[in-house]
Amino acid sequence: MNWEDNVRRVVPYVAGEQPKEQNVIKLNTNECPYPPAPGVAEVLHGFDCDILRKYPDPDVSLLVRALARRHGLTDRQVFVGVGSDDVLAMSFLTFFNSGKPILFPDITYSFYDVWAELYRIPYQCQPLDDSFRIRKEDYFRENGGIVIANPNAPTGVAVPLSELEEIVRTNLDSVVIIDEAYVDFGGESCVPLIEKYDNLLVVQTFSKSRSMAGMRIGYAMGNERMIGYLNDVKFSFNSYTMSAVSIAAGAASAADETYFRDTVAKVVATRERVRGELDKLGFICTDAKTNFLFVSHRTIPAREIFEALKAEKIYVRFWDKPRISNCLRISIGTDEEMDRVLAFLEAYTGGRKDETHL
Ligand code: PMP
Question: In Å, how far are 57, 90, 283, 358 from 231, measured between CA atoms?
Answer without folding.
Answer: 14, 9, 46, 46
